[in-house]
Amino acid sequence: MRVMIFGYFGTLTDPGDEEYREPLAHRTGELLGVCRPRFWEALAGRFGERTIGVHGGTESTLRAVALSCGANPSSAQLPVALAHHRSGHARLRKPRHHALGVLAELRPDTVQNSFVQDLPRPTGG
Questions:
Q1: CA atoms within 13 A on the CB side of 117
Q2: What confidence score (pLDDT) does residue 90 get?
Q3: Cα–Cα distance between 115 and 112 in angstroms, integer?
Q4: Of 33, 101, 105, whose CA–CA distance to 69 is shortest?
Q5: 58-68 and 77-93 are packed helices; what angle lies between their axes, rounded to 10 degrees?
Q6: Which of 14, 37, 71, 80 gets the highest tally of CB atoms within 10 A of its CB?
Q7: Where are the alpha helices (DSSP H) in 53-96?
Q8: CA-CA distance, 16 to 108, in Å (whole number)?
């Protein structure tokens, strides 16, 4: 058996969509009361924590990052920011044209597919 490992973002997704990642973080930060560059930098700086779920799910992680930037998002701000964050990341997760078809054509009896998500990129969502 052979194994093929794919990096999900930028390999199976359209790398051109990555240009939306930073503006998405900027707007999420604004909705949480954090200035644009500071929130983006805080997300990048806490990449390791985010990937292993130190702060829990997405909502609690966004709150923790906002708090680390000196903001204290209200109970009204957090759901709006979370909805924006999730809708924006839906675009980033969309597989590129034909990616799923290519995977389907790989013979399951000879090739086992594995996926690596977000490991090499320091500013994941």
A1: 9
A2: 83
A3: 10
A4: 33
A5: 110
A6: 71
A7: 58-68, 77-93
A8: 30
- Pairwise CA distance, residues 71 & 26, whole Å: 14
Rounded CA separation 24/40 (Å)? 9
Tokens 């900027």 locate to 26
Chain centre distance of CA 61: 12
Query: When comparing pLDDT for 1 and 40, which is higher?
Result: 40
Task: Give Cβ neighbours of residue 40 (< 8 Å, ≥ 6 apart).
Answer: 22, 25, 26, 29, 123
> Tell me: the pLDDT tens digits for 89-100?
888 778 888 877
Residue 62: per-residue pLDDT: 95
| pLDDT tens for each residue of 49-78 | 887 889 999 999 999 999 999 999 999 999
DSSP 107: -
Confidence of residue 105 (pLDDT cuts 50, 70, 90): confident
